[in-house]
Amino acid sequence: MSEPLLVLDGVSKSYAGHEVLKDISLSVHAGEFVAIVGYSGAGKTTLVSILAGLVKADAGRVLMEGKPIAGPGPDRGVIFQNYSLLPWMSVIDNVLLAVDQVFPDWTPQKRREHAEKYLKMVKLTPALAKRPHELSGGMRQRVAVARALAMDPRVLLMDEPLGALDALTRATLQVEIERIWLRDRKTALLITNDVDEAVLLADRIIPLSAGPAATLGPAVEVDLPRPRDKRLLNTDPRYKEIRREALDFLLGPGAHKKRALAEVRA
User: Fold this and answer.
1) Is residue 187 within 8 Å of residue 6, measured between CB atoms?
2) Is 5 helix (H, G, I), strand (E, B) or coil?
């Protein structure tokens, strides 16, 4: 196997003396879709912020193509849960803001065509001139996806990008994210607290233990054929087995009993 594109090696991070992440080691290969699943408050956002170069680790190495990550860069596109759109700018201008920074040598026409290409990919061509307050939550997140993809990053980092959406919109965007990923095969790392979302989208699931001093558990391979249909997966024995493996680590000691109770209540 080729060398990993993204590496975390013994990474730890503390805030005000409280250890959030402890001895995190992870390798992600080019073209792979990895999901890290954990509880709210476990340190998932800190982890993705370290990978994005927005936060510096206290210990360990963070590497991109074998070189230390020293700060943010266009090789890593980030999609946050809160959209991070500039409210006074139109949809097209929000995307162009990123494109202009990454491709300053292109002509204005080429940059606009490039931005429009990705907005078309997320089905937002009719909304080019709208401002964020005129969009639904799902549409705003589509803009954020288009903006990140338009940067043409080597790695797409997603920090619970669908967490604030209603169930129907979330399901729709899950399908869109898989469709886009299958088209471009960008290396992707998804942070989520939804095990079912991770199984639907990822090649590999890695659970993150509850904090403080959260650490990664054993990886679970998701060897289900693509594209994946959520309705059909619910009856697939392998889907249930993968889901159980991920949940057993997250629920900890007595996991089988806790999982059985959760399934009964569901």
Assistant:
1) yes
2) coil
Whole-angstrom Cα distance, residue 110 to residue 117?
10
Q: What's the rounded Cα separation, in Å, for the pair 203 and 225?
A: 10
**How deeply is 65 buried, as exposed, middle or buried, from its count of CB atoms within 10 A (0-12, 13-18, 19+)?**
middle
Amino acid at 18: H
pLDDT at 250: 87
Determine how many CB atoms are found less than 10 A away from the CB of residue 64. Answer: 20
Ramachandran category for residue 175: left, alpha or beta (phi over 0 → left; psi -120 to 50 → alpha):
alpha
Give residue-wise pLDDT tens across range 207-220. Answer: 999 878 999 999 99
Q: Are 90 and 131 a contacting pair, CB within 8 Å?
A: yes
CB 143 within 8 A of CB 124: yes
CA 195/CA 251 separation, integer angstroms:
12
**Beta bridge partner(s), residue 24:** 11
Please give the Cα distance from 178 to 15 (Å, whole number): 35
Pairing of strands 204-208, 33-38: parallel
Q: How many CB atoms lie within 10 A of CB 15?
A: 11
User: Tokens 């992707």 identify what position?
Assistant: 188
pTM metric for this prediction: 0.88
- pLDDT band of 239, cuts 50, 70, 90: very high
Cis peptide before 227 (omega within 30 of 0): yes
Measured distance between the N- and C-terminal CA atoms of the chain, rounded to whole angstroms: 41
Place of tokens 């392998």: 238
